[in-house]
Amino acid sequence: xxxxxxxxxxxxxxxxxxxxxxxxxxxxxxxxxxxxxxxxxxxxxxxxxxxxxxxxxxxxxxxxxxxxxxxxxxxxxxxxxxxxxxxxxxxxxxxxxxxxxxxxxxxxxxxxxxxxxxxxxxxxxxxxxxxxxxxxxxxxxxxxxxxxxxxxxxxxxxxxxxxxxxxxxxxxxxxxxxxxxxxxxxxxxxxxxxxxxxxxxxxxxxxxxxxxxxxxxxxxxxxxxxxxxxxxxxxxxxxxxxxxxxxxxxxxxxxxxxxxxxxxxxxxxxxxxxxxxxxxxxxxxxxxxxxxxxxxxxxxxxxxxxxxxxxxxxxxxxxxxxxxxx
Length: 326
Hints:
Elements: E1 16-22, H1 27-37, E2 41-48, H2 55-69, E3 77-79, H3 93-96, H4 117-127, E4 132-136, H5 141-149, H6 153-156, E5 157-163, H7 179-183, H8 185-192, E6 199-202, H9 204-211, E7 213-214, H10 216-225, H11 228-246, E8 252-253, H12 255-264, E9 269-279, E10 290-293, E11 303-309, H13 311-322
Parallel strand pairs: 1-2, 1-4, 2-3, 4-5, 5-6, 6-11
Antiparallel strand pairs: 7-8, 9-10, 9-11
């Protein structure tokens, strides 16, 4: 089950070797669908990290998504870190519900790969040196452990796309911190200092809260498609939609899906800018906050932040994907 997204976005280039590192719930599942169904992606592995909901549930959600995409047995699922490096794990079940998928369950009995996620990341980066893109849409624990274990890991990765942080200091779990960074700020600190050749951030603020919101009308459009994928989306997204609406965001937010898509389609990005990014580790009220210094010189910058995307094209892509029949 593959699809073409919107006119002009496809190229004749070979599919991009890709790993998605995920804390699989709601939008993470939709992001996996992008990686599994877009012919521009050659998804090498799904690696699981402690984050949104219980770890075992995240694994089941990954296999549920593989089932929906018709890819069970084709893409391995690797189990990674089940706790952050230093502090206790903090869930986001208040946002995504207890299971993150609205009570939906997989019917397959596929088991995770025996290889640990961190070992898989290191191996795949070596096998695809200079070519592999990693999209990290959960806490950065697995990525940090790979950096610690293999001094060449960062240099072997073509690009690391991180869903995390905020340019403007607006948090979504504390006033100052975005969830993925807050759960394991020590890991995030290791990653931003690791020297990856290219790091791009998809931030909570301003990008997510402005350009990835699916309001009532957009959700209704998806529901009207009445396909297996659209029905899965609406049900899995219901808890997040209700939470985000109550938080004043106007609808559900989809930065994880966007993170995978921008790795595949640079034309979607309207503006991006180099920054020096640091992570606050000690602040009493600001632990886990990201500091984006836009005045950094080229030598000081360690990342690029995407500042604007074509929101209509992003929604159109997602609607087209979810409208496909198996």
